[in-house]
Amino acid sequence: MYTEDYKREDFPYKNFLLKFVIIIIVVSILVCIVTAVTKNNKEIEPEGYVDEVFSKNLEKMKEKALKFYNEDNIPKDVEKSSKLTLEKMISSKIITPIKDKDNKLCNTNKSYVKLTKKENEYQLKVNLVCDEEEDYIITHLNNNSYCSTTYLCENKSNDVEDSDKEELSIEEQDDDTESNLLTSSKTTTKQNKNISISKTKKVRKTKVTSKKSTGQIIVTDTTNKYLYEYKKISNTVFSNWSLWNNWTTTDCNTKEINCDEKDITCVRELKRLDRKEKLNIYNTYTSTKSSLKNNSTIKTSVCSNYDYIKIDNEIYQLNNSNDYRQINNITKNTKNNVGSWIYNGRASYDTPPTDTYNVHYILVDADYSNCSNTCNKLPKYIYDKYTYNNSLIKVSNYTCNKNKTFEISIYNRVNETITFGRNEELYGTVCYKSERTRDVISNSTNNIKWSKYNDKRLLNDGYYYTGNKKKK
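RE: above sequence
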């Protein structure tokens, strides 16, 4: 009976084996899917991912490059470039060696900065390669009026797209129609609206969205949310320049003042005019002359047969002292014999002549015949000469056997100052100045705001990226 029951209820081997095989296949497929997803999440890094150390190193290379480039070494022709490898920057003492977050030196040959002259601006590309990480930034520059510490600095508006950029732009968008979680590679490019993956590294979650208007594929990092720093510089506002004032004479050491466009402290300008002019100058010429002057008298006992005078402390005996003293009354207008003083005529002398006991000179005028418009030395001097033509004998004393009381004239030598002057036509440099001014209406201000990436409202209002960012 037992045997019959067993035969009647055969064990379902075929159904059991079929179910077992199906279960094995399903489990294998699940294991493969989980393994693939896990592997991709460990290896793939989204476009735009740069750790904090890497980001700071990029900024460091950019800052050093901006300080290196100046008016003399920037490319002058459109599409011409100047490239510096990191190795060259280190050897030239522009920058110190760069290490990544693992304290490994970055690649000095593949890392570089490249400055390119564009039509209306300069583009600075900073490329950094550290171990398995590589990224670059492009900055739009110019010699802007607000550049303070470098010749080139970032443009206020960063709303400029690089036509040579091969990487897919990463930004936040509000008008999303589809979203799903993907993994992205270091370099992600758009090909037929599909995303190609190459050289995968790290795992980060991203959001892929499609823009309604253009169908553009946008990759957004959803792991870390950042706020970006925007800056707007309000320049100093000045009034219009005043009119130039009238020219006035000034010292020829006065310096011109010209305001530079970047100098917001300059509110006054001055220009100077120098020209040769004819100057009517009264020049004076001074010299000295040794003359005999009757400056005192004495009463004393003298020989009654003669008169006496005393000249330079010497005693002279003469027949008539009043006749000698006639020289005191002669002037430049006399020009005649006066008593025993004989007029010898008028003559020009290079230096004033000296009086003697019997020769006197009367000053008449200065002789400018050796001068042109001005005298490089003293002029000549014109004198009338008079000679005493009578007995004048030097003696040792006044007295004799028969004396009388007599008033003796004393002549002493004095140095007279002789001064002449005249108006002379001289030519010299005369300097003039004219000035204008302006007022400060409002001072410059720096406005800082933090917002999402590509905030069109701020960019259109004149704000620009500073390169700083922070987590929300």
